[in-house]
Amino acid sequence: MQVTKYEIDMLDVKAADAFLIHFWDDETNFEYVVLIDGGNYQDGSTIAKFIRKHYGTDLCIDLAICSHCDEDHFGGITYLLEQQRDNGKDNLKISQIWINDPAKHVPNGEIKWSQKMSYFTKLVKARSVYDLDGHDNLFEIIDTLQQQKKIVCYDPFSDAYLAGQVSSCESNLFEVIGPTIDYYRSLVPDFRNDLQRKNGGYDSDESQEQIAELKDGKMFSKTLEEAEDDPSSHNKSSVIVLFQPSDGNKFLFMGDACRDSIDHIPQDLINSIQNVYWLKVPHHGSKHNLDCDIINHIHPQVAFISTEKYGHYLSKAVVNALNKLGTRVYSTNNNGSMCHHKNTPTHSGYSSATPLK
Fold it and tell me: What are the backbone angles phi and psi of residue 5, rounded to the nearest 5°?
């Protein structure tokens, strides 16, 4: 498939992620829609309204990719699949979903969950990380839709071929960079572990020094080098995806991946994300998810951050580091919803976005 006409929409869903890739096959002019993460539950309706308004009323979602098991990434997908199961007003008929099933990677499909306040450990179903208050578990909905032959589900690993999990939708357009099967399997036992998840220090002290500088052509930030890596096993397990249209540009989506996630990417795939055109900055711009080496390696021309405000995940140290390399950095807290488009018209009501300085 040749693709030179496309648009990428980052929806303003506050401190959550919801991205849409809308592209056309050059030869057939068929349209395709890919959703990468769905924000929180209420954001599912926002996604449906956006597609109907800006893409057309007769389009479905050809592929939904859920990066990992945090509610601000899978919540909206839960809403959309409920609508598909129940044939609701926002039924967009998702044809295929890429999501890793933690139950496949632990004995008996169970994990140990540490209760922080009472300091005891109990066994819970591994799929419970996809529970949502007042709604069915996401995998229960997927199972129902699969039984009805309304959706196809694949596990997106960078070495998925080893488990016979290569998707029919995976082509030269979308490439899974991480995680590997073994790395994901090592993380699953710590899913839902409160002690691991809550101690991340995600709020950033913006009064500290945020300066970045160039040393021998490389960016250096003392703040980023001293920041601890994100401890969340959920975030470490994020699916990292590269969208590669036919014009040679590379668009890297990182979910909430962190330094450890990058360290476990196979060497040949690490090389493929060097000097990309466009980066979805992981974990809403937190200083705990990127260090100097990673930023220098990826070295994006354009970076997008989905966030609410400085100090809540978003760190000036990350913005300054990217700016120092000449990257144009845009955020939803500064611009609202944004669109990057190639050979397509600007959305009605949109104007030029202002980069962060």
Answer: -125, 115
How do residues 189-242 score in pLDDT, each as one tens digit?
999 765 454 444 566 666 566 899 999 999 999 999 999 999 999 999 999 999
Peptide bond between residue 179 and the one before it cis (omega within 30 degrees of 0): yes
Nearest to 37 by CA among 86, 71, 85: 71
Is residue 347 included in any domain, yes or no?
no
Extended beta strands in 92-191, E state: 96-98, 110-115, 120-125, 152-154, 174-178
- At residue 220, the pLDDT reads 97
3-state secondary structure of 52: helix
Q: Is 353 part of a structural domain of the chain?
A: no
Look at the chain and report how many structural domains it folds into.
Answer: 1
Q: For 156-199, write each residue's pLDDT tens digit.
A: 999 987 655 555 444 579 999 999 999 999 999 999 765 454 44
d(CA 26, CA 49): 26
Q: Find the mean pLDDT for residues 259-284.
A: 96
In a domain, 62, yes or no: yes
Can you tell me the distance from the alpha carbon of 62 to that of 88, in angstroms, rounded to the nearest whole number? 18
pTM of the model: 0.95
- Residue 134 identity: G
Parent domain of 70: 5-201+209-342
Give the CATH number of the domain where residue 271 resides. Answer: 3.60.15.10
